[in-house]
Automatic annotation (TrEMBL):
It is found in: Bacterial flagellum basal body; Cell membrane. The keyword Metal-binding does not apply. It comes from Cytobacillus horneckiae. GO terms for cellular component: bacterial-type flagellum basal body, MS ring; plasma membrane. The chain crosses the membrane at residues 25-45, 448-469. Belongs to the FliF family. Residues 257-400 form the Flagellar M-ring C-terminal domain. InterPro entries: AMP-bd_C_sf, Flag_M-ring_C, FlgMring_FliF, FliF_N_dom, YscJ/FliF. GO terms for molecular function: cytoskeletal motor activity. GO terms for biological process: bacterial-type flagellum-dependent cell motility. It is a multi-pass membrane protein. Residues 46-220 form the Flagellar M-ring N-terminal domain. The lineage of its organism: Bacteria, Bacillati, Bacillota, Bacilli, Bacillales. This is Flagellar M-ring protein. The M ring may be actively involved in energy transduction.
Length: 533
């Protein structure tokens, strides 16, 4: 056994001595690299990922949950100032079910389930009223918590006492609510009104006038000030529209002049005056069908014709005298013996015209005034004269055209003159002394050195594989050469004995001859046999 161990040690030393320096480095570095790589993989695979189990907890709830998890031997971590508790990711769902079955987290509030769990005949009326009020407050608070933008809610309800007699006037209830809202969340008017109506309908005989709602910052949510809220929101919307119009014009001018002068050679500022007045009007117009002749379409016509031909009546009758006793009515007719004709024609035509009724809603977003200020840096920053005056005039004319076409014509009494346009455009040529040079942004993504390290590691692995294969191949080739050499030598040794030799004696003679003529090959052959044994 000892000789076998020594032979193995000798073979190892011989193998190490015959290796090159590069092969020695690879043989030592490859196992070390594999050990480090496997260690990193094992650490990454066995690392526990903690995720939130509950959030927005009170300190008492966090303490009870932490104590329960520690008793179970489950790793946990408290974060967010004691409001959040984290557990291993694979245990989240199971823990939620198990803790819920145990009534954890327990907020200490009484809800309507209390009556079903603690119903009894020993409860007095006062105790029942207190528990009922507490349950109503808890249920209403839980209902409000489900609204978007609200983290928590505290509700205080004051219920009036019922009168003894039927004719007693029922008093109204009142409620005070404190909301813990999310930072930066803005409630709309409709949401505030819905919240008031929700509370009003959840408590008997509670009008909206008896409800007070504030948040943790003592900001009052008043349903009566919805008009003020609407005005504020309308101002914010109009301001955003004004800024959007200014940004749109500024981007167009900036893009155009940057193409002409250079991206870092132009700075544009735009100010606009927007008319937000929305006009609703109704127009009833009557127009002729035939505008050229100013005539309509005849829908009905009537023509009346009267004619008379013949002699007049002879004179006769009693004329009226100057005497007052004479009758006022006289039957005297003046004679007219001449022949005569009479004709009367009357024609009536009813024409239909176009009756147009228009209900016009004017757009409220009209540009009443527009000003554009442009600063241009000359090609040579220290030489303002390097920018010719013709180029400045071209820029001024371009800006004037933009102003002329952007201003709404309906807001002007007269068309803008060139002098008025020039007053709305300013072009300043000067160097940009405050310009900041930003470093070039690199493309987002994986850094280049990560790819380099990966390529190096891949190359090292390939080299190790190639060297390992070559070493195995060279070792097997040496063994085959030694074996072939021995086989070839068997045919070169002459048979010196006349007597018949066995295979064992023949192999012994061959080995003796090989030991004398080629001791190194004989030693390798012995090492090979020892290795095989």
């Amino acid at each position: 056994m000892k000789e076998s161990l020594q032979s193995y040690i000798a073979k190892i030393k011989e193998f190490w001595r015959t290796r090159k320096k590069s092969q020695k480095l690879i043989l030592v570095g490859a196992p070390l690299f594999l050990v480090i790589l496997l260690s990193v993989i094992v650490i990454a695979a066995t690392k526990t990922t903690l995720v939130p189990l509950y959030s927005n907890l009170t300190p008492s709830e966090t303490g009870s949950i932490k104590e329960n998890l520690d008793s179970r031997g489950i790793k946990s971590e408290i974060s967010d100032g004691g409001k959040t508790i984290k557990v291993p990711e694979e245990s989240v769902d199971t823990l939620k079910v198990e803790l819920a079955a145990e009534g954890i987290p327990n907020s200490g509030n009484i809800d309507y389930s209390f009556f079903s769990q603690n119903a009894g005949i020993g409860m007095t009326e006062n105790e029942f009223d207190v528990l009922k009020l507490d349950a109503m407050q808890s249920e209403l608070a839980n209902l409000i918590k489900g609204i978007d933008g609200i983290n928590d809610a505290k509700v205080m309800i004051n219920l009036p006492k019922q009168g003894v007699f039927v004719n007693d006037t029922a008093e109204t209830a009142s409620a005070s609510i404190v909301l813990n809202t999310k930072p930066g969340y803005q409630f709309k008017d409709e949401q505030v009104q819905s919240l008031y109506h929700l509370v009003s309908k959840s408590v008997p005989n509670l009008p909206t006038d008896n409800i007070v709602i504030t948040n943790q910052n003592f900001e009052y949510f008043d349903i009566k000030n919805s008009e003020n809220f609407s005005t504020a929101s309308q101002f914010t919307a109009q301001h955003e529209i004004k800024k959007e119009i200014e940004r749109d014009v500024q981007r167009q001018v900036q893009t155009m002049l940057a193409t002409l002068m250079g991206q870092d050679k132009v700075v544009v500022s735009v100010t606009a005056d927007i008319d937000f007045t929305q006009e609703n009007r109704e127009e009833n117009l009557i127009e002729p069908v035939d505008e050229e002749n100013m005539e309509g379409i005849a829908i009905s016509a009537q023509k009346l014709t009267e004619t008379f031909t013949g002699n007049g009546e002879e004179a006769g009758g009693i004329p009226q005298g100057e005497d007052s006793a004479d009758a006022l009515g006289s039957s005297y007719l003046e004679g007219n013996n001449a022949n005569g004709d009479y004709e009367r024609i009357e024609e009536t035509i009813n024409n239909e015209v176009n009756k147009i009724r228009k209900e016009i809603v004017e757009s409220p977003y009209k540009i009443r005034d527009l000003g554009i200020q442009v600063m241009v840096e000359p090609p040579e920053a220290d030489n303002p004269n390097s920018l010719p005056q013709e180029r400045i005039n071209d820029i001024t004319q371009i800006l004037g055209t933009i102003v002329r076409t952007s201003i709404d014509k309906g807001t002007l009494e007269d068309e803008l003159t060139n002098e008025e346009i020039q007053e709305k455009v300013v072009v300043s040529v000067q160097p940009f002394n405050g310009k900041v040079e930003f470093p070039s942004e690199e493309a987002a993504g994986i850094p280049w050195w990560v790819y380099m390290i990966g390529a190096i590691l891949l190359a090292i692995i390939l080299v190790l594989i190639i060297l390992f294969v070559r070493a195995r191949r060279s070792s097997s080739m040496e063994e085959e050469e030694e074996y072939e050499y021995v086989r070839e030598q068997t045919f070169d040794i002459p048979d010196v004995n006349e007597e018949k030799e066995t295979e064992a004696s023949l192999r012994t003679k061959q080995l003796e001859k090989m030991a004398k003529e080629k001791p190194e090959d004989f030693a390798k052959l012995l090492r090979t046999w020892i290795t095989e044994d």
